[in-house]
């Protein structure tokens, strides 16, 4: 598949962090405005390389340290609006037609904004970005609770309060080791009580037990990463595979896995593209979606993830159409909107690609 076709293909991303995807030049400008002096360099190209290299350590904790610089410059209404608008523009120019973009409101309070003001600012930025692209993209926010802090219930309440106004669901993120999903059970119970959507980062730095908690104790509808579901899958010498009870449950219930290959290589959740579990999971019938995680920190785009997977596994447009349809089917959007996106945007887009 040619890069131009990959760029043109309609894409949907369910797992993309707002604070992991800033334009390097914007970080530098905002740092100037905020009086933030701790950036490792003031050259945009060098800054992009710095993020990717610093995050490429094989450890999730080290990967997450780089976010101190992006969060530092996302502390005012104007900065949040700008970053969100640019995020929508950048995704749209990469061919993304639907995006769920997540961030942790609690990380943007250093200069006096309230949680509600943070959410309003980011939403205003997304609306502005959608408008600038002429409506080529629809963006929804997911609000993230940080797993090492104690604000998840508050963020779950914030999610319920802002739903139907640009916020589609909730997530927890941050260091997985020592902070299991069950630690945030009250947040998930609140969301369930209010019929609200949520996904959980699980099975990235910790194995299947984290996914078990996320799905069976907390009730996650989707799993962020989830690659370590392979702990519960045995691949035999003849290439066949046996699934344990948890893997079967996740597959048979169509629980979407928000897979982010490049990020996994940086954090050590996977060894290389060629042996990334995405292909095994897809062949076994899991609901696989392909995602960026952090466009700046992982030095990637949706098109780049597609291209890496095309190279590693020979995927063509059929597989990318399958991933995209799976993503939209698992989106936290009302069903008629999901169906409309699939029948009016995704299917025709891939049909046009096949006709050349
Ligand atoms: O792959 C990941 N695993 C766990 N946490 C992450 C990942 N990527 C980003 N964040 C965390 O989510 C916060 C809100 O967006 C970021 O600040 C970062 O700390
Ligand atoms: Zn993530």
Automatic annotation (TrEMBL):
Domain Adenosine deaminase, residue spans: 10-346
UniProt keyword annotation of Cell membrane present: no
Catalytic activity: adenosine + H2O + H(+) = inosine + NH4(+); 2'-deoxyadenosine + H2O + H(+) = 2'-deoxyinosine + NH4(+)
EC number: 3.5.4.4
InterPro entries named in the record: A_deaminase, A_deaminase_dom, Ado/ade_deaminase, Metal_Hydrolase
Stored Pfam families: A_deaminase
Keywords: Hydrolase, Metal-binding, Nucleotide metabolism, Zinc
Function: Catalyzes the hydrolytic deamination of adenosine and 2-deoxyadenosine.
NCBIfam families: aden_deam, PRK09358.1-2
Family: Belongs to the metallo-dependent hydrolases superfamily. Adenosine and AMP deaminases family. Adenosine deaminase subfamily.
This protein's name: Adenosine deaminase
Species name: Streptomyces jumonjinensis
């Amino acid at each position: 598949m040619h890069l131009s076709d990959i760029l043109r293909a309609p894409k949907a991303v369910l797992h993309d962090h707002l604070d992991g995807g800033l334009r390097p030049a914007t970080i530098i400008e905002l740092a100037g405005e905020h009086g933030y002096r701790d950036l490792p360099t003031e050259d945009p190209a060098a800054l992009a390389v710095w993020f990717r290299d610093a995050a490429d350590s094989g450890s999730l904790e080290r990967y997450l340290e780089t976010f101190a610089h992006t969060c530092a410059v996302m502390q005012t209404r104007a900065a949040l609006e700008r970053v969100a608008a640019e995020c929508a523009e950048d995704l749209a120019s990469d061919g993304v037609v639907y995006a769920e973009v997540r961030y942790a409101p609690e990380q943007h309070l250093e200069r006096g904004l309230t949680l509600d003001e943070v959410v309003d600012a980011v939403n205003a930025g997304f609306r502005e970005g959608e408008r600038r692209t002429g409506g080529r993209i629809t963006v929804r926010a997911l609000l993230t609770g940080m797993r090492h802090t104690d604000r998840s219930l508050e963020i779950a309440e914030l999610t319920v309060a802002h739903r139907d106004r640009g916020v589609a669901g909730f997530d927890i993120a941050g260091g997985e080791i020592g902070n299991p999903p069950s630690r945030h059970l009250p947040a998930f119970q609140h969301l369930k009580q209010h019929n609200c959507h949520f996904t959980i980062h699980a099975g990235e730095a910790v194995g299947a037990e984290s996914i078990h908690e996320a799905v069976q104790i907390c009730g996650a509808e989707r799993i962020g990463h989830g690659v370590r579901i392979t702990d519960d899958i045995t691949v035999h010498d003849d290439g066949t595979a046996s699934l344990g009870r948890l893997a079967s449950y996740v597959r048979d219930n169509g629980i979407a896995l928000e897979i982010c290959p490049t990020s996994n290589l940086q954090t050590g959740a996977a060894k290389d593209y060629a042996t990334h579990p995405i292909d095994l999971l897809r062949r076994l019938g899991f609901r696989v979606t392909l995602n960026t995680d952090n466009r700046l920190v992982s030095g990637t785009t949706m098109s780049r993830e597609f291209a890496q997977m095309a190279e590693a596994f020979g995927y063509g447009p059929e597989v990318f159409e399958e991933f995209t349809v799976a993503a939209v089917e698992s989106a936290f959007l009302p069903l008629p909107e999901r169906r409309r996106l699939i029948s009016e945007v995704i299917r025709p887009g891939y049909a046009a690609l096949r006709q050349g």
